[in-house]
Amino acid sequence: RVKAIHAKIKNSRLDAIHKFTTKLAKDNALIVVGDVKSRSFTSKKTNLAKSTYDAGWFELKRQLEYKCKYAGCQLEIVNESYTTQTCSHCLKISDSSPKGRAGLGIRGWRCAECGTWHDRDINAAKNILAVGLDRLAEGIPSL
Predict the structure, then answer these.
(1) Where does residue 89 rank: exposed (0-12), middle (13-18), buried (19+ CB within 10 A)?
(2) What are phi and psi of 115, to 5 degrees?
């Protein structure tokens, strides 16, 4: 019975990822994502392993790669280092920005340099998009 429940959860998760990635690839000409290294979140030093595995980051990226090829959508995978810490307005890393794993609980912060208020995830998304667009403008090939 437990095996059947786990199989149902796995299939539900895969179905959701398939629907999500299909819609993304069809509705967009460009998708820029950070190169998430899930290994750093699944070590024995953190308690994030379960939620990291539940997110299915590897599967999401794998499906985006092949679906974008068929849909004519360009996929850019960029280094996401410091994207949550860098102010998307002034492009500086201030003392007030969330730092590392210890700063994961900080969901919003104000840049000490320019005073702009940031939601951690939205700020990171803006920075990841900016890196992807800069790569396209400079003609740097995808990873």
Answers:
(1) middle
(2) 85, 5
